[in-house]
Structure formats: structure tokens, C-alpha cells
Design brief:
Strand content: 15-25%
Strand order of the largest sheet: 4-3-2-1-5-8-10-11-12-13
Radius of gyration: 17 Å
Number of helices: 4
Structural class: alpha/beta
CATH topology: Glutaconate Coenzyme A-transferase
Length: 231
């Protein structure tokens, strides 16, 4: 059973942009960062002032900037999700073999991925739903196998109101025991493999009870859970 809590579906208090803004606070000066498809790509628009990070994409670019303004898109300049992007001064473009060598060689300090499910031991499922056609897994399995710091950006529940934070993933796994932190529309949580999800922050206006009701996996709730500060 993917959600033992009868399809609880709290109102999303944080949109996709808010999730990306919160994740941008995890960036550190000098880091190389890989952004997965979906919500993670928005993180490039919210790099905090005073720090410099270099975004890497597995299709072969180092030095991605924010998304282009409408009318300024270059159809030849895209990320791994085939979205048009910008390139910062000093950016370099190369083949995917070189890009994956960077990933497999652990030269990327942070990877931000979307997910369909995450287990309370840090397993992630983000590439396939049985019975649905997919073009391929892309670079996800290389990223989760090589990265030491993985943050997942996703909604807390699916469209049916079922929890996406589970005791065990029901979908085919992308990686095992690899996720360190999760940022959803309801909360920020860290994965403690021995004890489950630890609640670190709650989204503005969200109660701890809302998060608890929307989480199917083990959840550790400290005595005080601060509200997210989005700047």
C-alpha cells in the first residue's frame, strides 16, 4: 500500500519555484552542481548573492546560467532535459563521455534530482513507471551511484494524494541508500537510514500535523520545527 493514510492531500503551501528557492540555500561557493530534469532546473535562477557555483549538465556543458528570457532562446543550447538554457562567461561545451567522466569521477559536489518516490532509508525511484513508455533512464543512475550529496526536489504527494515519502519504494529503483535530503512543498527533511525521515523545516503556513499526515514512511519529529526562510 503506497499510502496507509487514506490519500491525505494537504493543500500545497509551496510551489515549484519555492522549492527551488529553498534548495538554492544549500549551495556553497565554488561547488560544481548537477541539476536534474523538472523542479531542479529552477535552482539555477536563485543562486544566492556572494557565491559562485558552476552548473553541469550530463549532455555536455559546464557553466549553465539561468533560463533565457522569452525571445532570447538559442535552440542549439540546451540542457539534458532539452530545455533552452544560457551559458555564463567561461562556460565550456564537450561530449557526453567527458561529462559522465566528471560525474563518475565524483567531481560534482551536489546533485539535485526530482523523484516519484523516496524511501525512508534513502532509496530513490525517479525513472520509470511500469507500463508507461520511457525513452531511457538518462544519467540518473550514474548520478546517484557517484554523487555523495543528493537532494531530492519534489511534491510531497502525487496527484492522487498518495504520499511519495514511503517506508519502501514501490516503483523500480534508480539508486539505493543515496538520498541525503528532501525538499517538498510541505517540508525539508533529511534521511537518517536507521530511523527514517527527520523533519528539519516546515513550509510557510504548514503544520507539523499536515506533514505527518502526508508522510507514509517513518518520520522523526523534533520538539521544535522551524518554518522555512525563503529570503
Amino acid at each position: 500500500m503506497r499510502n496507509a493514510l487514506n490519500n491525505v492531500q494537504p493543500a500545497p503551501m509551496l510551489d515549484k519555484t519555492g522549492i527551488a528557492r529553498r534548495i538554492s540555500q544549500e549551495l556553497e561557493d565554488g561547488w560544481y552542481v548537477n541539476l536534474g530534469i523538472g523542479i531542479p532546473t529552477l535552482v539555477a535562477n536563485f543562486v544566492p548573492q556572494g557565491i559562485e557555483v558552476t552548473f553541469q549538465s550530463e549532455n555536455g556543458i559546464l557553466g549553465m546560467g539561468p533560463f533565457p528570457f522569452e525571445g532570447e532562446e538559442d535552440a542549439d543550447l540546451i540542457n539534458a532535459g532539452k530545455q533552452t538554457i544560457t551559458a555564463l562567461p567561461g562556460a565550456s561545451i564537450f561530449d557526453s563521455a567527458t561529462s559522465f567522466a566528471m560525474i563518475r569521477g565524483q567531481h560534482v559536489q551536489l546533485t539535485v534530482l526530482g523523484a516519484m518516490e523516496v524511501s525512508d532509508t534513502g532509496d530513490i525511484a525517479n525513472w520509470k513507471i511500469p507500463g508507461k513508455l520511457v525513452k531511457g533512464m538518462g544519467g540518473a543512475m550514474d548520478l546517484v551511484a557517484s554523487a555523495e550529496n543528493i537532494i531530492v526536489a519534489m511534491m510531497h504527494t502525487n496527484r492522487a494524494g498518495e504520499s511519495k515519502l514511503l517506508s519502501q519504494c514501490s516503483l523500480p529503483l534508480t539508486g539505493v541508500n543515496c538520498v541525503k535530503k528532501i525538499v517538498t512543498n510541505l517540508a525539508v527533511l533529511e534521511v537518517t537510514p536507521d530511523a527514517g525521515f527527520r523533519l528539519l523545516e516546515r513550509a510557510p503556513g504548514v503544520r507539523v500535523a499536515d506533514i505527518q499526515a502526508a508522510t507514509a514512511g517513518r518520520l522523526i519529529i523534533p520538539d521544535h520545527v522551524p518554518e522555512m526562510q525563503l529570503g
